[in-house]
């Protein structure tokens, strides 16, 4: 009897949800929307409000108020401007290198490699994701330190590494975020019908022409999807610059340095990478790639 009463008691709820699709949709979206709006968006809004506050020069305490001095500072101080340009250059370089590596690798894995080699390459691509973020950065630091593996290996050829500098930061970030580009590109290339390659070959197109005129246009949405990760994650990173960049500073480096000394300046400077990402998404949207994702 208890089983029957339980089933009868549960029928009205299921029947009600079945008759009310809008209520069912709201019940499904309540928790994720609470997280997105209540935590993520509200946090960004509070960060923006903090950017207009100031620090008391006598007590060093943050005082609520409204001032544009923090934004004027980040757009007029040469060090802040140079760091913003440097960070943008690094993020774009990382994204470009990831694309240049992911496209030929994806073509080889999807259309040429045998299943065993394809599985091995898939594991090799995702292998960096298995290790911790800080562990991977320390590994790159150990490789390119003055007495590290790179200098030891290249010493017989009279070649030495560039030391901790911007190129090593770009290489480190490429190593960190490459899987986010390689996996969507590989998946997109795998879905391209083989007869398109055959048709391109029958029409006399060489390998590079086929890649440029057939493959690239079809995988642009996948490239855009991967670039959103590589670009935004590189913009917000600062540990790579700290451990493998030597004196190189990125936007995150200045934010981390000011988070305790001058939180309003840190909050104002945090708007720069957000603005870069928004502009990047707007440019990508104008290409029509986001609609095809």
From TrEMBL:
<keyword id="KW-1003">Cell membrane</keyword>
<keyword id="KW-1133">Transmembrane helix</keyword>
<feature type="transmembrane region" description="Helical">
    <location>
        <begin position="65"/>
        <end position="82"/>
    </location>
</feature>
<feature type="transmembrane region" description="Helical">
    <location>
        <begin position="266"/>
        <end position="283"/>
    </location>
</feature>
<feature type="domain" description="ABC transmembrane type-1">
    <location>
        <begin position="84"/>
        <end position="284"/>
    </location>
</feature>
<feature type="transmembrane region" description="Helical">
    <location>
        <begin position="25"/>
        <end position="53"/>
    </location>
</feature>
<feature type="transmembrane region" description="Helical">
    <location>
        <begin position="164"/>
        <end position="189"/>
    </location>
</feature>
<dbReference type="InterPro" id="IPR000515">
    <property type="entry name" value="MetI-like"/>
</dbReference>
<dbReference type="GO" id="GO:0005886">
    <property type="term" value="C:plasma membrane"/>
</dbReference>
<comment type="similarity">
    <text>Belongs to the binding-protein-dependent transport system permease family. CysTW subfamily.</text>
</comment>
<keyword id="KW-0472">Membrane</keyword>
<dbReference type="InterPro" id="IPR035906">
    <property type="entry name" value="MetI-like_sf"/>
</dbReference>
<dbReference type="GO" id="GO:0055085">
    <property type="term" value="P:transmembrane transport"/>
</dbReference>
<keyword id="KW-0813">Transport</keyword>
<dbReference type="Pfam" id="PF00528">
    <property type="entry name" value="BPD_transp_1"/>
</dbReference>
<protein>
    <submittedName>
        <fullName>Spermidine/putrescine ABC transporter permease</fullName>
    </submittedName>
</protein>
<feature type="transmembrane region" description="Helical">
    <location>
        <begin position="88"/>
        <end position="108"/>
    </location>
</feature>
<keyword id="KW-0812">Transmembrane</keyword>
<feature type="transmembrane region" description="Helical">
    <location>
        <begin position="210"/>
        <end position="233"/>
    </location>
</feature>
<feature type="transmembrane region" description="Helical">
    <location>
        <begin position="120"/>
        <end position="144"/>
    </location>
</feature>
């Amino acid at each position: 009897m208890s089983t029957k009463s339980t089933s009868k008691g549960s029928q009205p709820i299921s029947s009600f949800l079945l008759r009310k699709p809008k209520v069912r949709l709201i019940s499904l979206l309540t928790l994720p929307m609470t997280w997105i709006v209540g935590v993520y968006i509200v946090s960004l809004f509070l960060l923006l409000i903090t950017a207009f506050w100031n620090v008391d020069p006598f007590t060093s305490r943050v005082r609520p108020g409204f001032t544009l001095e923090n934004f004027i500072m980040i757009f007029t101080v040469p060090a802040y401007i140079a760091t913003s340009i440097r960070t943008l250059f690094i993020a774009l370089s990382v994204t470009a290198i990831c694309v240049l590596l992911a496209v030929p690798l994806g073509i080889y894995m999807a259309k040429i490699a045998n299943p065993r080699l394809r599985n091995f390459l898939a594991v090799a691509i995702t292998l960096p994701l298995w290790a911790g973020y800080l562990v991977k950065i320390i590994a790159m630091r150990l490789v390119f330190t003055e007495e590290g593996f790179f200098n030891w290996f290249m010493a017989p050829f009279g070649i030495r590494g560039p030391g901790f500098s911007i190129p090593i930061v770009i290489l480190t970030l490429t190593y960190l975020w490459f899987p986010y580009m390689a996996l969507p590109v590989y998946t997109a290339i795998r879905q391209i019908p083989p007869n398109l390659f055959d048709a391109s070959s029958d029409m006399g197109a060489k390998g590079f022409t086929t890649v440029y005129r057939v493959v690239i246009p079809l995988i642009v949405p996948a490239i855009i999807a991967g670039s959103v990760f590589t670009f935004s994650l590189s913009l917000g990173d600062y540990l790579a610059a700290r451990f493998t960049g030597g004196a190189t500073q990125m936007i995150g480096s200045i934010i981390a340095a000011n988070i305790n000394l001058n939180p309003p300046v840190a909050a104002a400077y945090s708007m720069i990478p957000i603005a870069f990402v928004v502009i990047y998404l707007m440019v990508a949207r104008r290409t029509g790639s986001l609609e095809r994702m």
